[in-house]
Amino acid sequence: MTTHSRAGRAFWGDIRFLIGIVLVVLSILSVWLIVSSARDTTPVLQVERTIPQGEALASGDFRVVEVSLGAAVDGYLAPQDLQPGMIAVRTLEAGELLPAVATADARTGRTTNIVVDSSVGIPASVEVGTPVELWHSPTDEDGEFDAPRILAADVVVASIPESDGMLSTRSAAVELVIDRADVADVLAAINSGAALSIVPRGSGS
User: What is the pTM of this model?
Assistant: First the structure.
């Protein structure tokens, strides 16, 4: 009876020992997998400056960074993915990784750039990449300006020229990215002498 009891304790002791070894091995394997995954990085493009919607993408606007994105890596562009003729389909902020969905071929782009002169200057809060509304006040039959109204609502600032001189100030001219469907209306407003103004999106008139 005593012999069977000792044999039973020895058997269960051996089982617990083996289970302990298996747990240690699994723990070591898990740590190794985590470390290996962290070391598995992929080169992708990171935006170095704000790129407004509709602007052509050039290699000089990006730097290559090594990141660990796992399965999400396919959603971002690697250096070899940047091709001539690609444009930004939304404003890209400096520091963000370049998402594939934020780019398109220029031939399929729905936007173009137009330079307009703002009759009331440019608000200080407006900078490259700022979403704005383009308002206009058309002239009536007597040559008077009519009530202002929105001319194009989905507009992004592409660039703001700086005037030359000792005291450099913002020019009233601004380059805008607009939908091609709005081009005819904007050009007609410019040619008719309407007063144009830039309003940050969400602001009042």
Answer: 0.61
Q: Which among 59, 70, 66, 65 is positioned nearest to 46, based on CA atoms?
A: 65
Q: Are 46 and 64 in contact (CB under 8 A)?
A: yes
Domain for residue 19, yes or no?
Answer: no
Give the chain's domain count: 2
DSSP 122: -
- Asked whether 82 and 57 are in contact (CB, 8 A), the reply is yes
Of residues 171, 135, 140, 156, the one with CA closest to residue 93: 156
Verify that 141 and 127 share a domain, yes or no: yes
Query: Which range of residues forms the domain containing residue 102?
Result: 42-107
Residues 190 and 133 in one domain: yes
Q: Which among 201, 196, 205, 200 is positioned nearest to 117, based on CA atoms?
A: 196
Residues 105/72, Cβ–Cβ less than 8 Å: no
Choose among 154, 159, 42, 177: nearest CA to 98: 42
Q: Are residues 118 and 196 in the same domain?
A: yes
The tens digit of pLDDT for each residue in 58-103 reads 999 999 998 877 777 788 999 999 988 899 988 999 999 999 999 9
Which secondary structure element, helix H or strand E, spans residue 158, and what is its range?
strand 149-159
Q: What is the pLDDT of residue 64?
A: 93
